Fold this protein.
Amino acid sequence: MEARTPRGFHDVLPDEVRRWQFIEDNARRIFDLYGFSEIRIPVLEFTEIFARSLGTTTDIVEKEMYTFTDRDGSSITLRPEGTAGVVRAFVENSMHAKAPVSKLWYGGMMFRHERPQKGRYRGFYQIGAELLGPEDPASDAELITMVWKFLESTGLSERLTLEISSLGDNNCRPQYKEKLVAYFEPQSEKLCPDCRRRLGTNPLRILDCKEDGCKKTAAGAPKMIDNLCPDCSAHFEAVENYLENAGVPYTINPKIVRGLDYYTRTVFEVTTNELGSQNAIAAGGRYDGLVEELGGPKTPAVGFATGMERLVLLHEKAHPGGFQKEVAVFVAHLGEGARTAAFKLTSALRDRGVSAEMEYGGKSLKSQLKRADKSGARYTFIIGEDELSRGKVKLRRMETSTEEEVDIELAPSLSF
Ligand code: ATP
Ligand code: MG
């Protein structure tokens, strides 16, 4: 047999995991500052949860879901995104009755049957957050600010652009859709077959099509942002105002459509131009109708998700030198008796919270120092039989290659 993952799935090896942990630690810290708590939900749901939430005419539901029939005949789908499951959990656990506002974040694997490329996988990891309860534009701005501060905390925000727009609501979007159809219909022969079909099912999707002909035709299309009803328009202005006050740099991009049908009003995307066509780093928006759609009480909400693999790829570009685990102290030893003393000293160092590594086999001092160097240790203890008989060990400062003798009894309690 051949030991390999299915196409589109990948392992994350330890050196890379450290980059992940760096980003995850920052996410946790920043989300905590904004009052978000972690929620852990199943990796699969009844298919209907996704079909209802995402919309049956979206790319994900039409062609990207991993769906199977369970033994009892029910249709199950591996989650392609996190929001639907969080909202299902919100409804199932009556979270609306426990607090007027729920702030939840999650992290986990998502599954989409896409054509794999660098930065695009069939199994990928998202971190996201949902703020359920308020309709206040301050909550949109709070969430967007949190996303930006999180990205800033990773040191990657200089490589990123934040764009926002509004998709209107049930009041103004239907009329806008009619305008779109009236615009595209007379020139439908310029559209790809998918978009000709979308004209009848989901005309907004045409604005998101990557085909050249469709892009060109869509360039002159009416913009949702120019067709907002007074309420949506006021909401959008307020979001802008809050973002400006928070010092969050954004631009307006009226072309943002988003790939999911549940969005209303505010939508936003964070992109980079350093990862080729996999330029989307994070995205989100308001979804005021979704909780009701899944059987809960009317609950406005706003959320976002970010793709970890793409953030990690960007982090690798920013810090190509590797992101290894470094130990503080290395313990080298020469001779049989010295090995036991080395084992004891290494344990004692760890007991005091100092990360320490010792050499295993009976290698030469030169090769032990080489390994010490590679480990990133700032200090190396060198234990030889001769010093040991006097109760001493050598302490070598790696940066300067200077050595001094210290009492072996005092060695674990030095500061490193
Ligand atoms: P794209 O336009 O690249 O397909 P998307 O709009 O489908 O992205 P969302 O559904 O908004 O993406 O998911 C949020 C984030 O998850 C994206 O911005 C991206 O960083 C990441 N993401 C989405 N699909 C994949 C994938 N197949 N592989 C890796 N990351 C992904
Ligand atoms: Mg996609």
Observations:
- The chain has two domains: 14-172+228-318, 329-413.
